[in-house]
Amino acid sequence: MITNAPFGSLSAARQVLEQRLAEPPPTRLQLLVGPRQVGKTTLLLSLAKAWQSRGIYTAADTPASQLPGWRERIWAQVRDTSRTGPVAWFLDEVQTQANWSAWLKTCIDEALRDRLPIHIVATGSSALSLGGGSRETMAGRFERIVVRQWCAQDLIRDLGVPAEDAARRIVSHGGYPGAVPLWPEEDRWRAYLRDAIVEPAIGRDLLALEAIRKPALLRQVVALACAHPAEIWSLDKISGSLTDRGALETIAHYLGLLQEAFLVAPLQKHAGSLLRRRRAPPKLVPLDQALLIGVGGELPPDPTSDPTRWGRWVENACLAHAVKRGQTVTYWREEPWEADGVWEGTWGRWVVEVKTGAYGSSDLRGLASASRALPDHRPLVICDPGSHEAARSAGFVAVAWTDFLEDRWPDT
Q1: CA 334 to CA 336: how far, in whole Å?
Q2: How far apart are CA 339 and CA 332, in angstroms?
Q3: pLDDT one-digit tens code per residue, 332-376
Q4: Which residues constitute the domain of residue 39?
Q5: Does the model's pTM come out above 0.85?
Q6: CATH number at residue 129
Q7: DSSP for 84-102, written as a single string
Q8: In this structure, is residue 55 part of a structural domain?
């Protein structure tokens, strides 16, 4: 069995933070970044509780945090507490503070200069606003920890979702933990996705990152990606499908923003030349299936009555899972053949085809062509449970998508 590191999981982030908080302070700032509603605040509150009176939790997005002198009062409290021993300061939603990176740089430099026993952990819902600010003003002063939307194993381990149901739920409902209790109530579940995840992420976080000249265009790009998961779209085709057309450079820029905000990954074509990769159209992969419902408003497809759409959803979930597990994910295409994914990373090198429903050896010609073109990549077929035979007869490794999404790979 292939063992996957829990890249991007909340439990992995907890382990890393506990290890780093056990180091002698002062240390580098710990930046915990990731999408909304994946448990960052819960993690900070839990760590602060473990530190008891030596842990200080501060929410940076409250009305009080906007009052004059708030920053100075909070830092004075942290500094005074450190006079009697090590202290851990947990600062939540720091990106809501103007010039947050310059403020924290001052605090870190003071702690390092005066050897104050202070740990600082900060969180934010956007990789771009955190990462950008930190790169500009805090070089060498921070370490970045990424938490992503939950995978099937996270739902099984931390929320008690039955193992036999977790992978299917990842495909049909996504991996936002706060939505799990609402699964039985369809209307409440969809309202939660819309109001607690999609609208804040698009309507507030993204628009706060920088000056978005065409917010309506940005929303349409998100809607298109979520309506066509795991499909290849040229920038010209994207522009032609939108009512509010924009320059191709603007659309490409917005796709980059969506990737930094953990919403959509525009996968590049696997090619030897950087220029060829950039010129090729991207494959749009929403990074959680819940976005397909929250943005598009449609219910999950039925595998029996709508097998084509269901197959596209399964493919998207598998590609998104590889991204969330830290692999470099691209796609392969040389007309007339195509392979769904090319993965490189801790799993090794694989060229991948996702098949749902019945398939035969003729349906794997694209994978075979990709395998010949990429001889250092092993061919893998991800298929329905019990549908391995055609792939294995062709000499390919096969795994059920239910097993794959639960990180249960076959012996190879």
Answers
A1: 6
A2: 5
A3: 999 999 999 999 999 999 999 999 999 999 999 999 999 999 999
A4: 10-146
A5: yes
A6: 3.40.50.300
A7: GS-EEEEEESGGGSTTHHH
A8: yes
